[in-house]
Queue: 2 jobs
Job 1
Amino acid sequence: MDTRLVIRAQGGDQEAFAELAATIADRFLATSHRILSDIDLAEDATQQALLSIWQDLPKLRDPARFEAWSYRLLVRACYAEGRKSRRWAPNIRLLKVDEPMAADGFSSVVDRDQLERGFRRLSLNHRTVVVLHHYLDLPLDRVADTLGIPVGTVASRLHYAMRAMRAALDADAGTAPREAAQ
Amino acid sequence: MSTDRDAERIVRSWLREDRHEDADRVLDTVLADLDTTPQRRAWWLARRFPAMNNAMRIGLAAAAVVVVVFLGYQFLSGPNVGGPSPVETPTPSPVPTATPEATPAAYVYPDAGPLAIGRHQLTVEGVPLSFSVATSDWSIDEYGYISKDTEVAADQAEFLFWSLANIYSDPCAHTPLSPPVGPSTADLAAALWTAFGTEATEPTDVTVGGRAAKHVVLTVPEDIGCDRTSFYLWYNACGGVLPEAGCYRYATELGDTIRAWIVDVDGARLFIEADARKAAGPEVEQEIQQIIDSIVFE
């Protein structure tokens, strides 16, 4: 990340922020889409996170830490969207399975719907850790830094999440032949 | 599936599939909003000394010491220590003016995030209270929504401390009860008991935090005639970050058990609800009751 761009945006330079936002927006949307499993909620979370970044940039003490700081705001926005979707009618959105099925042989081993369902059964906390670690490739200490929680908690959440996903996949492996025979 | 490594590989592969996200529209919206979205200024000053050499830093430090010594001398010698008494000059009596009383915030919640085991304070509808959690899997969001997140979906539960403006006579059609619910705890308890669309127990008299309360247990039917998120239960202002907005509570899950406590706190009608899944184990109910029993009104 270009820290000069961050510093300019901190000073209120909208062009610098536009450039900065353009470099992270796709990644943000992809990340929030995976955490929330819903593209509409993900767009709202990304929009909220980008606006929060603009608003709070002057408070960022160390521009070199922009990336971790910005992901923290994104995760916060995802949590807000995820919670709202469960609770408040003005934010009603049904979770939907709308992902395209790619023909790559992967689906012969596991069913994507089962993966999707298994992932959605995880809590937001668990999904977030999985996405930050296994999608963004952040090491555990940076996941902990991003979420503001101890590394041990990250490891514990990851362990539970992956155990649950494995259980979902195992269940899929057990049911797939029966489904295929119907 | 054979190993954890297989599961990890499959999940990684699935997460990295191209899902065709395009953030252009979001980006356009954000950039269009910049003009009307002011940046929040920091209260601190950034500490940057890019072009400062050691001699300048020592000089600045020495100057700072001189300033501190000078201010200290002024402070110590200011109030005439050991000197003659100062001549009192008459000052006009202060004219009593109407100063605005500080209005306590209607909703104050702990910082969003996990709730540590122990006691937590919050303010709901201007009523300060505290409660304690005995396990580490509870968290709160910025709306004051307290949830128990466990990997066992059946044991997840939620708490809300708020007040109700009214309920719906037809939750699917979103028709508010008319005339609206009366102001007493008994009025609200009776309305919940007889509300169309849910099954409820007859209200009972209990105490919460030493205050008289009504307790009603509702069950969200599994066959409600509309979508779960269209099944409106009740509404009032949102707490947390959206105190001015209305929040309409809909069913968290079909078949949920909603335990409601309606407490009269010095004339304020507080509504406490706890949601638990249909298949929740008895320990969830015990944990909910433990939180209720721990409530103290400040």
Note: Confidence is low (pLDDT under 50) at residues 42-61, 75-102 of chain B.
Job 2
Amino acid sequence: MRAIFENIKHAFGALWGFRARGESFEVITPFPTSTDMYVSVFITVRDGRYVVTDGGWVDKGVYHCSLPTENNIYNRVFAFFEEDYCISRTTSADGFMYLYKSTRDERLIPNLVFDVAYFISAVVNTALVQYRDETVRDRFRTKAGTLIRRHVSADRLRFNAPVSPLAKAAHFGAVVTSLQGNSVSLVNFISGSNYENVRGSFAKSNFNYDLLERTSASRLVRDKILLIDDRHIAAKELSPFIEMSKEKNQSPLMWSTGQEELLERLA
Amino acid sequence: MCAKAKRSAMVREAYKDYEANLAAEKIVDSPFVVQSIKQNHPSSHYDEASITSAAPLGEMCVACEIRNMSPFNYSFSYKTDWIDDRVLARLDVGDGTHNNRVPGIPLEETSVPTPHIHLYRNDGYFVAYRIDGIDYESDEPVKFDYYKGYEYLCGRLNIGCENHTPPAFYFQPSGRLNLMVSDADPNEGVEFPAENE
């Protein structure tokens, strides 16, 4: 009996891994993800404070999954774990979300490793659950976001944000400040796996543009772009929506043909 | 025992051919130059170089994907049209530790950090293995660049060149500088404000 127990303890213990990483080090933990990976945390000392972080890996997609932050149910799940494990967040200069905990008490580092690693495992695994139809849309946002990130410097770029704090009610997929800093271009991502979802996506985008029109922040807007995922829906089915958006001085661009124009407009 | 790992019935049935192909001497087009942006994945670069062998398994090639322009974050795949999954072997280098969820592997051996190579086992499961000679606790794994990776892959799979020189590899992304910046420490340069203690 005892031998079986000792074997269990040994096997679990042997899953821990250490890796040198410059000024920090990586701890490979026994916490799994359903994407066939083990969770890592990164430990750094800053002014006598021990910081345990996810290394930005959740947001960077290292765990082979992007968080469905469009989904309210998922956001509640994430907020629950974030609060339950007292996780803090910050953003790196290149725009990635970092999740962390810190302490001045060296004895408590294992507690932090436990909390951060379990938290990562939980938010990654729950992100894999199919929440209605939103994964198609989410993949498109990630894809479009990656394209924009590659061509627009992070200091000019905000995702899922309002134009100004004075017009908080209206949110846009991407808010890109001009090089001169005196105007913004807005991008909404239009996607969905079927006609109804795409229609809803147009409606939501339009609602946000209309809301913005009612505020003084609308004077800052140079370009109101719609980036449309046309990989699942034939363009002609979308024509009534596209015509309407043009009448409202929005610029509809198709993912399959409009990427270059998008980048020119954001330059 | 339930396992989610990838399993190929074709490789299981023709495992002897698979083994023979891996061991056989192979010739790759050299130099292998990676320069194209990957379709549907603009943060990666991807190219292929064809491979010939006396023991062929379909049309073979070696493929390379380099992520985020990093010399330390990439995969080399040994591919063929012989099996549906296309990939016969794959070297993964970069962030993330693989969990071998395959029947019969003791728990303590399921955790496989990078760099690691995926090969088929005789029952058709695709399993990740550590690379001999690497000290996984040092910073050697985060400095295993694509030159080292390609050299390892060619050695492991017996891939050479027509004229018996070592196969050459270059990364030449169009119009961009290829800086050998190590992204070893993800926390570097990030501010972590103190919480209420």
Note: Chain A touches chain B through 50 residues (CB under 8 Å).
